[in-house]
Specification:
- With about 450 residues, the protein is of the alpha+beta class.
- It has three domains: about 150 residues, 2-Layer Sandwich (Beta-Lactamase), CATH 3.30.450; about 90 residues, Orthogonal Bundle (Helix Hairpins), CATH 1.10.287; about 140 residues, 2-Layer Sandwich (Heat Shock Protein 90), CATH 3.30.565.
- It contains eleven helices and twelve strands.
- Strand 3 and strand 4 form a beta hairpin.
- It is rod-shaped.
Length: about 450
């Protein structure tokens, strides 16, 4: 059924439920009606008996009036009567079977209460009867009143078929609102389906708004969030490609122009060695940018997959990275206060974080860099400060976004890689301007 349209599924489910209820009711209703009319029959028999027993003298009634003259009393809903008295003598108005009379006599012999209800068979018909002891007879006398089951059967059958007909009409008519409801519910979903199809084709200019507050409306709001996310992602990809082409174009252009000049016997830097050195520097820049691009793409995969954690000394890695990068700007004054602290995570990823972050400090610092590592409030905190120029507010806001333009007009992935790795490790990084210089703070929760 799941392969049918939603409107058809809703209609089928509604039809099945309605049909199931009808079948259950078709079984319950006859039993309920039979029980009700059985009680009604006994009530009618007792009422007829009470009416008959109000006669001043039962013997006088049977001897003088006769049944035929008082048919209005005994014919109440086809109730018939006869009396058994004086050593099983019987007064009756119509013949009865021997078997039925014997059953009556057995019931009388075992009856303890003045009035009892019974049921039996008279000929081929089921009958209900009530035996009442008559108080005004001098001998032991009993009034037996009975009624055939045909009355009950007729009532049950008539009402049952009327109810079945009514249920059938309701069942048929209910399909109309079911179809309307199914179309009402499926229409916005069909609309969403077409919108999703358009999103898949990168047609996401038109907003998605269903104007509903129910679950379908919330689904539409989620689709609108997805649309906006796709727009932002598309813009980010376009910007990413523009920045990548810009970043790679410069070193490639320098390498090609210097190579062509050397081929033509021209040395832009005065001699062959210095000109080749420029080519080597640009090739190294190009290699670094390509490695960053590849690593940034790798981080997208790692964000959604678990990585191998290990416990390692963060202070040792900091010292190692500083020792390797400090020579890039030997005039800088380094101040380090590192507590011996271990953290859990991917050791090589944290090494890349520190390399990118410290390289950034060296690039912008004027004379000093300070690094502090300490433990507070169940967190390991790393603070790196440099006395370089403050970061502009608009740049600071998007400092860790890929290809954000830096103070010197350069685009890069370094700080974006730092931020991505730190997030993967459920940690945070912030940057803030101080009276002198800029401070970066990394908080790593323990446990």
């Amino acid at each position: 059924m799941k392969n049918y349209p939603l409107a058809i599924q809703i209609w089928i489910i509604f039809a099945i439920i309605t049909l199931a209820i009808s079948l259950v009711l078709s079984g319950i209703i006859p039993m309920t009606l039979r029980s009700f009319f059985t009680k009604e029959i006994y009530s009618n028999i007792e009422s007829a008996q009470d009416l008959l027993l109000t006669q001043s003298s039962m013997r006088e009634y049977w001897d003088t009036s006769g049944i035929d003259n008082n048919s209005s009393l005994e014919d109440i809903r086809a109730v018939k009567h006869f009396v058994i008295y004086d050593n099983n003598q019987i007064i009756l108005d119509s013949p009865l079977t021997v078997e039925f009379l014997q059953q009556i006599k057995r019931d009388i012999s075992t009856q303890k209460n003045p009035r009892e209800k019974y049921k039996g068979v008279l000929g081929d018909e089921k009958v209900f009867y009530v035996i009442t002891k008559i108080q005004d007879f001098q001998t032991n006398s009993y009034l037996v009143s009975y009624m055939g089951d045909s009355y009950r059967k007729d009532l049950v059958s008539t009402l049952f078929y009327k109810l079945i007909s009514l249920m059938g009409i309701i069942f048929l008519l209910s399909w109309i609102p079911a179809l309307i409801l199914s179309r009402y519910l499926s229409k916005p979903l069909v609309n969403l389906e077409s919108r999703v199809d358009r999103l898949a084709k990168q047609d996401w200019e038109e907003p998605i708004s269903l104007g509903r507050n129910d679950e379908i409306g919330k689904l539409g709001d989620s689709m609108e969030m997805l649309r906006n996310q796709l727009i932002r992602q598309d813009e980010a990809e376009r910007t990413f490609l523009q920045h990548v082409s810009h970043e790679l174009k410069t070193p490639v252009m320098v390498i090609r122009s210097y190579s062509q000049a050397i081929k033509d016997g021209i040395f832009p830097k005065g001699d062959l060695d210095h000109s080749i050195e420029v080519i080597d520097v640009e090739a190294e820049r190009l290699d670094k940018k390509i490695r960053n691009l590849l690593y940034f793409s790798k981080l997208d995969y790692m964000t959604n997959h678990q990585f191998q954690e290990e416990s390692f000394s963060l202070d040792s890695i900091i010292k190692d990275v500083v020792d390797r990068l400090a020579w890039n700007k030997v005039e800088l004054d380094w101040h380090m206060d590192l507590s011996p602290l271990n953290i859990k995570g991917d050791k090589e990823q944290w090494r890349i974080v520190l390399e990118n972050l410290i390289d950034n400090q060296i690039r912008y610092a004027e004379s000093q860099i300070s690094i502090d590592l300490y433990y507070i409030n169940n967190s390991t905190v790393l603070e790196i400060w440099n006395d370089g120029p403050p970061i502009e507010a608009k740049i600071l806001k998007n400092l860790f976004v890929e290809y954000n333009k830096g103070n010197k007009g350069e685009f890069g992935l370094g700080l974006a890689i730092v931020n991505r790795i730190i997030k993967i490790h459920n940690s945070t990084i912030t940057a803030k301007n101080e009276d002198i210089g800029v401070r970066f703070i990394i908080e790593i929760p323990n446990g």
